[in-house]
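Objective 1.3, modelling of assemblies. Example input:
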Amino acid sequence: MATPQQQERFQALIEEHKKILYKICNTYCRNRDDREDLAQEILVQLWRSFGAFDARCRFSTWMYRIALNVAISYCRRESVRARHVLSGDERLLNISEEATNPAEELLLLHQFIDRQDPLNKALLLLYLDGNSYQEIAEVLGISQTNVATKISRLKQTMKQDFGD
Amino acid sequence: MDLDALQAKWAEQDRKLDASLRLNRQLLKITYLNRAQSALQRLALGLGLEAAIQLVVVVALGSFLYDHIAEIRFALPAIGLDVFAIVILISLIRQMTLALQLDYGKPVAAIQRQLEALRMLRIRYIQGIFLTATLAWTPMLIVMLKGFLGLDIYRILNKMDHGIAWLVGNLLLGLAIIPLALWLSRRYSDRIKRSRLLRKFMRDLAGYNLNAAADFLSTLSAFEQDAEA
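Predicted structure (tokens):
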């Protein structure tokens, strides 16, 4: 049973890193209802795994791993999911219009990300969020050389797709 | 467009997000989180229940076999059914173990590999159960009539015209249903649009989902080994 201190600590950490949650949900789901379902699944998984979280590790790395694992599985699942939706007016992520109207270049970037498979989506997201190759390798479980090769390939593909 | 240049714009959008993103704290309340169960937890619970029922079936069949070991006409179908039930039980335990061993905090490639292995095992299990069930129902009829009602179906059928032929016919029909079920599921798996569950079942049966899982595993392998190529 979780103590109130653990609950508070969990809530504070999630609040601090909520952007990871938002960006992953947004990258993997187009539909708003799906985004909310995914966000809730990620939160549930984070909370269930929180007991095993090693405080010596970075919370963001741990959160990325769990959130990406849940998101990739969520997108690949075809079966009907039992819905655990809370009351209609409660929305997990409320974002102002200004923040959701990115510039044209960013829109193209989102389209480019959309076209990638779930694993490359994760890689791009981690790279764009400013994680080092070592951190990306840790989250994804591949070598740093592999990360570098993939990033370089994605840069080339992007240049080919959009030109300079 | 340059990915590195876009990194800066991405960060700028991030800052805007930070200011406007409000996480609904109500949803973060632990009571809600505790109430909600993840899909895997539900799967593990379901598998546990299935395994418990299956264990009862294995023991009951074993007991029937012990009582009728000298009567080959009853022992043979009971052995077949018991082997079938044991295979199901082993598969259920394997699925349950895989589901419970998953730690989402481990690296993405490793967990996705484990998840896909579980998915493939589950699909093969559904295919196996459904396709073998058509063959199992005749021995099941023999064993259940004897076990529950004390009736000897061979004697009943002997009194009827073509009684034994009917029994053999049923076995052959069971065999014939397998390719027919595969053909039907391949033909109609995408047309059944109303129920996602039914659609998934049909696609599992037809092997489409198994192929998708295998494809994803090869993508994953390529993703992991890219730099070595």
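Chain B has nine helices and one strand.
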